[in-house]
Design brief:
Length: 543
């Protein structure tokens, strides 16, 4: 069976390249200004990292990239775009994170701060006291400093320092930022279980390779605060992409898949349209905004003569993340049950699990393996069982679960192609056998297994180079005003009318929509669109 070619308009006001979450969010903001917006996605499905697939057995849904989100209906993007109108629902679990121990027991982190502090107190009264103080401080920092900064274009370092330096709260944020994430956690907390809990939430944000690098302390502020506010999208995270696409169509825009862009057309220094791989062209009367990383947008879609030599070199040398995820997805007869815990124990009903990490040195070990390109010899896993919280992601009475392992994106022996050989099965078995040490019932519960290696990631989402789900390293050299390059830091490119909004843009990856929000604001300001949302200038709202 063949499908007919979808007709495309000859021209629109604006073209969004890529139907990942940032592309769809930018399209939603801009189409509501009255602009005629077209989203072109190269793959057969929209969503990019918002991917839910049946990779084991029919009816068993597996989230291949994004599993949970830290924003819910009280979040700015959700509220602005009225996403609840388009069928998206979330679940905010009471049990957020669990660090189980091989010898039984666990440290549990709840949506409730009070319950979390009580759980920590059983391990260390001193850490419980510190955690309460630090959580309250970090919550204020996120509300008053971090969110206003992340929902705006990044400031040059000197201007940022001057702005933060005018208040005690801002100066405290700068003080924390100067630490490495590892040093800050170790200085604040004494018990290894508490350190493990916090470092796990740092690592899942793709900061493991830069854990001990000064300048990464800010992520501890976000990770500790955010670890209490995770949510799941009912039905799988692709439902969020579908809701976002519905919002575009509802306001008169269009989203088209299987539409690979070969070239961005540039005339007299201005982006004027795109040419698809099938030679069709669509002209852009006012703007083009790319959700694809700038290293690929400018390095592959734009002819080299349109960029100066310094930017061409920077694009070529772009620093991708040294770490990727190796995923194992299971179809199960029953959910994992953690040893020595009663079935109804909170330990068995968490959103996220940190399995195989029980001390801060375990993270240091994996950090060093990743930096050297060494495939981990021991498993340290991010684990979850979505059906415990959303049974509809499996047939009635069955369950799904996943385990993700941090691995080097460029293995020193075998290179990325290592994951096309027998090493995939061997490594998957190492992961699952470690998991069974904590949840022994997996041995009888497993029905089918699906492996999703870093190579599978880039095949599924080609913009995730070497499996880089965050579109760039989180080393301070590639953050804030430097992300993805100083000349691109305000979502504009040197080519007039060409913008970028992907996860390589400030403030980075994860399903937040902040790069898209900021890019849409810049585009609307440049083109004189009606800005119906309420962006805030950090100069006006920071203390």
């Amino acid at each position: 069976m063949t499908t007919s070619q979808i007709p495309l308009p000859e021209a629109v006001d604006g073209i969004i390249i890529g139907g990942g979450h940032n592309g769809l969010i930018a399209a939603n903001y801009l189409v509501r200004t009255g602009a005629q917006v077209l989203v072109l996605e190269s793959q057969p499905k929209i969503g990019g990292g918002l991917s839910t697939e049946e990779i084991t057995l029919p009816l068993f849904k597996h989230n291949l990239h994004v599993f949970f989100v830290r924003w819910t209906p009280n979040y700015r993007v959700w509220d602005d775009l009225q996403l609840s109108r388009y069928g998206i629902e979330t679940v905010v679990p009471e049990v957020q994170n669990v660090v189980p121990f091989r010898n039984g027991g666990a440290l549990i982190n709840y949506n409730s701060i009070e319950r979390s502090i009580a759980a920590i107190r059983e391990f260390s009264p001193r850490d419980a006291e510190t955690y309460e103080r630090v959580y309250n401080e970090f919550a204020e920092l996120v509300r008053e400093i971090v969110d206003p900064l992340r929902f705006a274009a990044p400031l040059p370092p000197d201007k940022l320092e001057a702005l933060l330096g005018r208040s005690k709260l801002g100066r405290r944020y700068m003080e924390l930022t100067r630490y490495s994430a590892l040093d800050l956690v170790r200085e604040l907390f004494e018990h290894e279980a508490v350190r493990t809990l916090i470092l796990f939430n740092v690592a899942v944000r793709a900061y493991l390779p830069a854990l001990d690098v000064p300048g990464t302390g800010y992520i501890v502020v976000l990770a500790l605060f955010g670890s209490h506010h995770g949510a799941m999208v009912k039905g799988g995270t692709n439902q969020a992409a579908r809701a976002l696409a519905a919002g575009v169509f509802d306001k008169g825009g269009q989203v088209v898949t299987n539409a690979k862009i070969e070239h961005i057309l540039v005339e007299q220094g201005r982006a004027t349209g795109v040419e698809l791989s099938d030679s069709r062209r669509v002209m852009a009367r006012q703007f083009i905004c790319s959700n694809v990383p700038s290293a690929l947008t400018l390095g592959q879609m734009v002819e080299p003569q349109h960029l100066d030599s310094d930017l061409r070199q920077a694009v070529q040398d772009y620093r991708w993340n040294e770490e990727a995820l190796f995923g194992v997805h299971l179809a199960l007869r029953e959910a994992p049950r953690y040893d020595k815990a009663a079935p109804d124990s909170p330990i068995n009903h968490s959103l996220n699990y940190c399995v195989g990490y029980e001390a801060s040195d375990d993270f240091v070990r994996d950090m060093e393996w990743i930096r050297s390109g060494t495939v981990p010899e021991k498993a340290g896993l991010h684990v979850g069982s979505p059906t415990v919280l959303d049974p509809g992601q499996a047939p009635p009475g069955y369950a799904t679960a996943f385990a993700w392992q941090f691995v080097p994106s460029r293995p020193a022996e075998g290179g990325p192609e290592l994951w096309d050989g027998p090493a995939t099965q061997e490594f998957a078995e190492l992961m699952v056998s470690t998991w069974r040490e904590y949840a022994p019932n997996l041995a009888q519960a497993e029905i089918a297994r699906g492996i999703h290696s870093p190579l599978d990631t880039v095949r599924h989402v080609p913009s995730m180079i070497l499996g880089d789900r965050h579109h760039g390293s989180y080393h301070p050299d590639n953050f804030d005003f430097n992300r993805p390059h100083r000349s691109l830091s305000h979502y504009r490119t040197p080519i007039k009318g060409l913008y970028h909004c992907g996860s390589d843009s400030y403030p980075g990856g994860s399903f937040t929509g902040q790069p898209a929000y900021n890019a849409a604001t810049v585009i609307a300001q440049d083109l004189g669109y009606d800005i119906w949302w309420s962006p805030k200038d950090p100069h006006d709202v920071l203390p």
